[in-house]
Amino acid sequence: MNEFGTKAYHKPLRIAMRVIAVLLFLAFVGTWVILMNLWADLDIPRVYLYMAIFVGYVLIERRTFRGPDEDAYTERIWVRYLLTYAWWFLVLGSLLEHALTLRSQSTVTIIGAVISLLGLALGYWATGVMAKSLGKRVDTWAAMRVVDQGPYAYIRHPAYLSSMLVVIGLPLVLNAYLSLSLSVVLVVLFIQRLRFEERILIQRMPAYAAYAQRTRRLLPSLW
Q: What domains can you pick out in the chain, each with its CATH number?
C-alpha cells in the first residue's frame, strides 16, 4: 500500500524513483552548502521579503483542502514528486542565483512581490471558502460536493492559479531570471495535475461535469 491507495508500483519503477530521489536530495544538499557560503553576499531585505512570501505560501498550503485518496491518483504520483522537488529547487535556486549575480532591479522586485501577494491573497480566499464549505478533509466521495462560491464561481482551480502566481513572482523578487525556467516547469506540472484531477472529479461526481460546463479552469472567459 502507498499513501495514495492500494495499487503497488512495479519494482523497476519503485527503484528508479528512489534513485532519482537520492540524486535530487544530494543536489539539494549541495545547493544549500553553496548558498550558506555565499550568504554574506545576499541583499538581506529582499531575502526577508522573499522568505516572508514563501512562508505565507506554506501557511496557506496547510489550509488546503484534501479530498479522497484512491487508487486512481497513483497513476500520476510522479507529478506530485516532481512538484515537490521543483518547488524546493526553485526556492533555493533563486537564492543561489541572487547570491551569484547580485542583480538589483527594484522595479522587477516590486512586480514580483505584487504578483506573489496577489497569489497569496487568492490562495487565502480560496482555501477559506473551501474550508467553510467542506472542511479541511473529506475522506469519501459520497461526502464530496461541488463548491461554487467565492473564486470558485469564476474558475475551477483558484488554488492552482494562486500557486502559479507565487512561483512566477518569487524569482522576480530576487531578479533570478534563470530560475524562472523552474517556474515554467512548475506551471506545466500544476496544469498536468489539475487536468488529471478534473477527469477523476467528472468520473466520480456527475455534478462536477455540469459545473465544468459553466466555468473556466484558471482564467475567467478564457481557459
A: 11-214 (1.20.120.1630)
Cell representation of residue 113: 512581490
Q: Is the pTM of this model over 0.85?
A: no
Q: Is 76 exposed, middle or buried (0-12, 13-18, 19+ CB in 10 A)?
A: middle
- CA pair distance 105, 169, nearest whole angstrom: 14
For residue 115 the three cell numbers come to 504578483
Beta strands in the chain (DSSP E): none
Q: Name the pLDDT band for 10 (thresholds 50, 70, 90).
A: low
DSSP string for 192-211: HHHHHHHHHHHHH-HHHHHH
- The DSSP output letter for 6 is S
Of 154, 150, 155, 161, the C-alpha closest to 128 is 150
**Grid cell of 165 as nine digits:** 502566481
